[in-house]
Amino acid sequence: MYLGLDLGTSGVKARLIDARQTVIGSGHGSLDVSRPHPGWSEQSPDHWIRACEVAIAELKSSHAKELAAVEGIGLSGQMHGATLLDAGDKVLRPCILWNDTRSHVEAAALDADPRFRALTGNIVFPGFTAPKLAWVKNNEPAIFDKVAKVLLPKDFLRLWLSGEHISEMSDSAGTSWLDVGKRRWSSDLLAATSLDERHMPSLVEGADKAGALRAELASKWGMQAGIPIAGGAGDNAASACGMGTVGAGHAFVSLGTSGVLFAANASYLPNPASAVHTFCHALPDTWHQMGVILSATDSLNWLSEITGKGAGELTAELGDTLKAPTGVSFLPYLSGERTPYNDSAIRGSFTGLGHESGRAVLTQAVLEGVAFAFRDSLEALAKAGTKLTRVTAIGGGSRSRYWLKAIATALQIPVDIPADGDFGAAFGAARLGLIAATGADPLGVCTAPATDATIEPAANLGDAYADAYQRYRALYPAIKGATA
Fold this sequence. Notes:
Strand order of the largest sheet: 18-19-17-16-22-23-24
Oligomer: single chain
Number of strands: 24
Shape: globular
Largest sheet: 7 strands, mixed
Low-confidence stretches: none
Mean pLDDT: 95
């Protein structure tokens, strides 16, 4: 058996698979996000541990025998979070999360240093880790002075599980401290934020061994002590391993809290001007590009809270047949946007509202707005040299066939739906745990699932969607100008 642990924004997932990669059982522990000020987003690392305990306890309650047979563990997690530890590994403050935009001034200052784009292949986004440390230095200097280690969220779980300070390439590529082409920490970039390599964990590839399960936890969970823990991956690279998106030209669209259009690459192809992320993949000598939108299902969840209707209820009101855009447009910039604008200050909007604009019209506009945000990412990927001909859909929002039809029509490419099963980040983490424990061929393990169905673009609505996308594109400069 092999265990995958995925530390997401809304919870920790535990996924247990056997040697044939059949999912045997799952567990989940919930998490909340603290937003003490506008644009801030934080979590307590202690809550991650508690959620992980809940997820494994749930798994143990129904699969204790299988849990005892685990021979490898893999980790996945939300990227970019700044977990600050003192010399005794004590947490110094709540973790500043990936969707926190407080460090936009610091990010702009670092991005103005040409070394950052040259070495990382990326814009320095406010959500990345390095500008967060610059913000802490500027605003919480007493805390900054005590920082001995900076860990990404999943690597804090590794510290708890194994006692080791270790990270891997895919997650570390999102810090703005990694030389992404050479796959190593950059002493120059660290020095630019008053840090050095002593503040960083050691680095391995995602399928390498990176620590072992402590005896205390093994005894508590009825597992074997010393089980190897794989380097693992950032959540999107782990999902790619779960989906078999590891070869050049393979791609997926992820409809989660945030939205990701992910393409695997066989070489390092940076183009930071496009606001596309270019990161190391979880497997050696592979990279990937991503267009990222900050509020995907979060946009629908926001509307759900406003209307008092569940997300499923809202989408059900639209029926099964894709409708032509109504003229009401939605910009899903509820916490700023990454691709293609790198704008932490922009905020969302509805435009074109009339007396006739009921709840269903707002829901339709939200789904279309997120679909058009993915179209923005598709265009940005094309400018970075990656052309996609089809994508596979993953994430909670992919349960809505209406939404997938809207995305296929907005992108004008087919969207594949994988056969039943969860092939996301926790599954990908378990695969990496299997590889680390057995030495199996990564490409032989990280295969693509069978396709259950393919959603084709709605041919009768292609022109209507193209017109609606042009209206959508015109709104960003108008809204930015009106709110600057």
